[in-house]
Amino acid sequence: MLAGLAAVVALAAVGVTLGVLASRPAPIIIRNTRIAVVDGPHANQHVSLDATFYLPAGQGRVPAILLAHGFGETKYAVAPEAEYLARSGFAVLTWTARGFGASTGQIALDAPDYEVADVRQLVSWLARQPRVLLDGPGDPRVGIAGASYGGGISLLAAGYDPRIDAVVAQSTWNNLATALFPNNAVGGTPAGGVFKKQWAGLLFTQGAVGFGSAAPGAGGTGHGHSPATGTPLCGRFLPQICSMYQQVATLGRATPQAIALLKRSSPATVDSRIHAPTLLIQGEHDSLFGLSQANANYQQIRRAGTPVDMVWFAGGHDGGDQQTSRMEALTAQWFHRWLSPGHPPRSAPTGLPGFEVSRSLGFDPATGQQSLAVATAAAYPGLAGLDHVTVRLSGPPQVVINPPGGSPASISVFPGLGQLGPAAGAGGLTFDMPGQSAAFTSAPLRAPLQVTGSPQVRIRVSGARQVTLFAKVYDVNQVGTALLPYQLVAPVRVSNATNGATVTIRLPAMDYAFAAGHRLRLVLTTTDFAYATPAAPATYRVWLAGPGLTLPIDPALTVGGSTVPWWTWAAPAAALAAAIVLLMAGRRRRTERLSPRVAEVPLEITGLTKRYRDGQLAVDDLSLRVERGQILGLLGPNGAGKTTTLRALMGLLHPDAGTITIFGREVSPGSPALSRLGSFVEGPGFLPHLSGRANLDLYWQSTGRPIGDARLADVLAVAGLGEAIDRRVRTYSRGMCQRLAIAQAMLGFPDLLVLDEPMNGLDPPQIHEMRDVLRDYVMDGRTVILSSHLLAEVELTCTHVVVMNQGRRVAAGPVQAIIGEGTALAIGTPEVARALSALETVEGIAGAEPAPGGILVHAGEVPTADVVAVLVRAGVPVERVGPGRRLEDAFLDLISSDGVTAPAPAAIRSPAGQGAAMDGGS
Amino acid sequence: MGAPAGRAGAATAGVTPAGAPGYQPRRTLPLRVEFRRQLHRRRTMVAFGILLILPWVLVGAFEIGGPPSPDSGAPGLVTLAATGGLNFAAFSFFASAGFLLVVAVALFCGDTVASEASWASLRYLLASPVPRARLLRQKLAVALAYSTIAVVSLPLMALLAGTVAFGWHPLRLPGTGIELGYGSALGRMAVVLAYVMINEVVVAALAFLLSVSTDSPLGAVGGAVGLVIVSNILDAVTALGNWREVLPTHWQFVWLDAFSPQITWGGMAEGTAVSLSYGLILFALAFRRFRAKDIVS
Q: What residues in A contact B214, CB-CB < 8 Å?
């Protein structure tokens, strides 16, 4: 038990140690610095950027990565990712963009003249670093990555600076104007778009006063904010940006100037110039920069002939699962592919699937997290999918109102509070104001429907010159509960609709599984909390203008099943090898050799030595031999090694030295020779829940021997339990157990019967009977070995005896010889010396010696009466006369002295007349 | 007591067979004998009693407490439990796989050798003689058989109880609420059962190793369960990151993947690898340990 626990603890300790060693970060060098740049339309604004340079330890030149942070954050927000990439072997430069944190300057929204110009100078700075790998003079091998604001600058910088060799842009925009003024009517433009007022307001506030870092994309708090450098209203925004925002926020719609300004800060202007291979990562939970923004980037970069891959992950600006470690790994993989010295040529595969989508598998009740699967396809098909499915909708024309002031508004999502929203792919607090929404519902789906892309629907609307609507597709389950996938809505603004206008709506792009049996419900609302809606009250009439929803599907997307780590196969194989080694190593060869010399000897023990683990020497060089027909007594005090000897001959112990042979076969654990042995050692061992009969029955069956050989009836007679034999053993008294155990040992009438203290617990008549049983048992040449610590027991039952003490044999011989019955007299007398001298002269007396309380006389053939007469004649007072207990005396003598010496004392020698049954040699 | 009638036991001594007439190591401790030895034990009865009653207790709990409200965002196994027999069986399994089934498996595999040692019957089996490796093999086979019956009996009874209480309806998957046809639902249940059994191999092996190492059945069972608990606690330390993947219990609920709309095998493959690896080594250690052990119980 303890050893097992220790083994497990040791295993765990090794595992933890390995874990600690392996998770100990590779050394990197981190250097904080300030980098001076000059930017502005006239290249005359001096800005000092707060930067940190991460280098992997070592000497050689390595590729570099520019790592940009999100809006409202600083370089510290990307520190963990920077360290990760540095440990992956890249030189990483992070900096706080102008207008944020400890950098000077003002926020220009990733404008070409400002932030982009800064990054170009950072690229030049990298080219001057001795550890950065160069493609040419002043041209470092460099990639750029970032999320949201940082993703925007990544794409823009790659568009403006051809020295950038690879891009990873996450959760970012293609066109800031369409992102903030979306119009999802086909053909819609930002000029007629609906103002995403909540997001715009949040972002502006973040820039102006440093509103923490609600925008995800990179966690962390904004260190070193110093918003005090700006004005209260505009914060650290560039004045023209500030006034643009104030204007559109007041108007609730876009102005041409705003659109132009936002467009300048958009990759849409440069995507066709991006030649650096680009990995686009966009969140499915993103009402700010939805999948359609990444799609636009993809199409443009693709048209430029540049390698580009698309990843949809389970997070985004609205929360979800940011999959941080996976995104970091993908980023590192992309940069390794494109930046490492000796990377594959541009025409070679990108190393990633062309399209990768994280799919929610639902809630994992074990972790409370949503469990994700990654579906991949070789190519990204765009938002129209590889194919499409049409789901018919039905519903009458409906009248909806636009409330005065646009309030109360329906709710789809709370921008900026995304982290508080649900983690699952659907659900959350959504609410459609009654009277403001029209619904068109499908029949229950017959089969599950996995939508990947942007569904479309055609509707007709009338009632006002300009109609603002929010379209969303609900997933309605069998009970009628409606869930809004990713809480996304598609705002549309329809012009010239006074007498009715037909419009095709591009619904939010998503990857979502509608279950079989569920319905799809298109809902059109006039208001949405997140958007600016017309203040004027109005009444619209909406109806379907087509069969229903056209839903894109991408059957090429498959959830990979073969992407298990290498150790999935290696570990069991290694474990199997280890198991085989464990079983094979140190295996003891069983020696089945037969010693013909002793083939007829029931038991021979030679030089048996057993030392237990605690160091106790239980049996020390014991040798003995038992012949057929003998009842051998092993006599010794408790702890003399009797039971250890018996256990060894049962094959329960591994002796340290010596051999045991049963009928010439050497005994080792499990030797077949043991089947000729019946044993009862150290108490009975029964299954307490079974009856005595069942115990004997099952015991015999477990030997696998023919049932007819058991001689169950004879054995049951020995047990003598009567009716009790069918009771559970649990109810037995100690004596009953004892008798049943002896019966079990006799099952099959083995040639050699080993009994350990068999008389314990038996009452006197039973003991008497047991002696008869044993005497009969050896009649036909069988052999019995019994151990006892009672001299009288051995004397009455055994034919031969081996006396043991402290593991050693101290005496051996026939009981008769040792007891000396009829040949020795114990005579009680106070005058020992006179008695001895008186007997010296008597003819026929072999000898006499002092004994406790008198003398011991080896009278030989001399009658007792003569001996007494001689003594009386000599005037010796004889107090009592009895048989001489030589064995007992010797026994007590022997066991009372610590240093027992072999060979046995002469007093215990084997008289020649008893034959050489006991082999005294060792 | 009567004196046994004599028989010349020496007749065949020294001739070819080393053992007594009719003795063959291969025939010792037949499986059916070991099965019977274990069958009527109180602990066997109690274990199966609990496993078979538990589903009805759960049904009762749902009847008293009413079905879980269905309108929360993502329906979990609990929420869907009362939607039909299949869902109820899945839920019962989920509720019991983490601990109850672990205890059951640890009980059957941890108790098997240690209880023999505590009854002192082990030495008589070994001296009869049942070769040590064979004794372990037979006992392990029977213990695993009992464990398998235990793991299977709970969901079967839950299926029965759930169907009686909530009707026979298609399986609705947690998270998505997608309904599966009966055939594929039963197929997935079979996958889950198979995986859980494989996952319990590590518990079985650990309990078995402890069982051959100690004379205290309680120590063996408790030790195995205790280590599972320790593993669970370590698994909760997210700072360990990927190192938790080598914890045997890290994968114990990966079978929920079988209830996703598109069944994924990756996690179950990894869990299988971890469990089998531990199992092989622990079983080998058990055999090695028992082979070299001095039986002093």
A: 1, 4
pLDDT tens-digit map of A311-366? 999 999 988 888 888 899 999 999 999 999 988 898 888 888 899 999 876 555 44
Q: Average pLDDT, stretch A653-657?
A: 91
- Is 60 exceeded by the pLDDT of residue A747? yes
Quick one: A709 and A807 in the same domain?
yes
pLDDT of residue A190: 84
d(Cα A53, Cα A92) in Å, to the nearest integer? 6
**A671, B240: Cβ pair inside 8 Å?**
no
Cβ-Cβ contacts under 8 Å, A578 against chain B: 280-281, 284
User: In terms of domains, do A417 and A501 share one?
Assistant: yes
Flag whether A377 is in a domain: no
Judge if A272 and A321 occupy the same domain.
yes
Whether A448 has its CB under 8 Å from any CB of chain B: the answer is yes
- Asked if A714 reaches chain B (Cβ–Cβ under 8 Å), the answer is yes
**What is the percent of chain A with per-residue pLDDT over 90, rounded to a whole number?**
51
The domain boundary, picked from A496, A530, A559, lies at A559
Which pLDDT band holds residue A419 (cuts at 50, 70, 90)? very low
Q: How many A/B residue pairs have CB atoms within 8 Å?
A: 352
Whether residues A354 and A466 fall in one domain: no
d(CA B264, CA A503): 41
Which of these three, A814, A829, A849, is where a domain ends?
A814
Contact criterion met (CB < 8 Å) for B126 and A3: no
> Do the Cβ atoms of A698 and B36 come within 8 Å?
yes
- Residues in contact with A623: Cβ distance below 8 Å, sequence separation at least 6, in sequence order: A605, A606, A607, A608, A658, A809, A919, A921, A922
pLDDT tens-digit profile of A506-542? 999 999 989 888 899 999 999 998 999 998 999 999 9
Pair (A777, A829) in one structural domain: no
Q: How many residues does chain A have?
A: 922
Q: Is residue A363 part of a domain?
A: no
The predicted model scores a pTM of: 0.66
Give the strands of the sheet with A369-377, arranged side by side: A28-39, A45-56, A91-95, A64-68, A142-147, A164-170, A278-283, A308-313, A355-364, A369-377, A558-559
B177 touching chain A per CB within 8 A:
yes
Mean pLDDT to the nearest integer, A33-56: 94
ipTM: 0.89
| A540: containing domain | 387-559
Alpha carbon distance A257, A240 (integer Å): 10
Q: For the CA atoms of B274, B279, B280, B282, what is the dihedral angle to 10 degrees?
A: 120
Report residue B177 as tokens: 């609420």
Q: Is B129's CB within 8 Å of A373's CB?
A: no
Report the candidate in B157, B158, B183, B154 with the shortest Cα–Cα distance to residue B170.
B183
Mean pLDDT for chain A overall = 84
| Closest CA of chain B from A137, distance in Å | 42
A306/B contact by beta carbon, under 8 A: no
State yes or no: pLDDT of A14 exceeds 80.
Answer: no
- Shortest distance, CA B183 to any CA of chain A (angstroms): 16
The answer to whether residues A535 and A647 belong to one domain is: no
Q: Is residue A828 part of a domain?
A: yes
Q: Does one domain contain both A797 and A840?
A: no
Total domain count for chain A? 4
Closest alpha carbon within chain B to A740 = B1
**What CA–CA distance (Å, rounded) separates A687 from A728?**
9
Higher pLDDT, A913 or B239: B239
Residue A226, pLDDT > 50, answer no
Mutation to test the B interface, candidates A600, A613, A652, most B Cβ within 10 Å: A652
A424 to chain B: which residues are within 8 Å by CB? 73-74, 175
Taking only the tens place, the pLDDT of each residue in B139-153 is: 999 999 999 999 999
